[in-house]
Amino acid sequence: DTAVSQTPKYLVTQMGNDKSIKCEQNLGHDTMYWYKQDSKKFLKIMFSYNNKELIINETVPNRFSPKSPDKAHLNLHINSLELGDSAVYFCASSQDTWAGGYTFGSGTRLTVV
Amino acid sequence: ILNVEQSPQSLHVQEGDSTNFTCSFPSSNFYALHWYRWETAKSPEALFVMTLNGDEKKKGRISATLNTKEGYSYLYIKGSQPEDSATYLCAFRSNDYKLSFGAGTTVTVRA
User: Residues 51 to 70 of A: which have CB under 8 A from any B CB?
Assistant: First the structure.
């Protein structure tokens, strides 16, 4: 049973295209996140949603738009892809009152050519 | 983005030896300190979440301590085994709920 699942696992696309990455969690968690792993391997927060409401929006180009249709899903849509968007994107979820930390998806490796 | 530093960046340890490494974080607006284990080609996996000054947590041969007043946490691995080879991430959660990660300490255990 996959707790946090991301699709696709790999995504290769051309500059200027629009693409989406989907994330779903079956843990009943209230909060979901998108993190970007940068070139130095840091995990950097992009967005966080709690019960479908945006609570964290870091300095991210507005070409990136998260969408949460319900608390089990947080999708990431990227418009007009640029070479610098190439990275691994991780989805995660947590229950604020739960002491178990974040549960991460397996990551989506996005390559823009 | 809050400053979370981990040292050393990497270390090699002989099988059977014990080791430890540090995470330093801001001592203000503290909510929680997380440790994660991240194996190559997998996703980060939560080890510990610590919230109180003086907390000590243990899972098998791995343990962690927390000092929120001075802003540091130690992770200890006792009797290292090859399966302990991974990158260990710490993350500071401030009371605005943001979780900021350090760059990690990559541990390689030599058989």
Answer: 55-56, 58
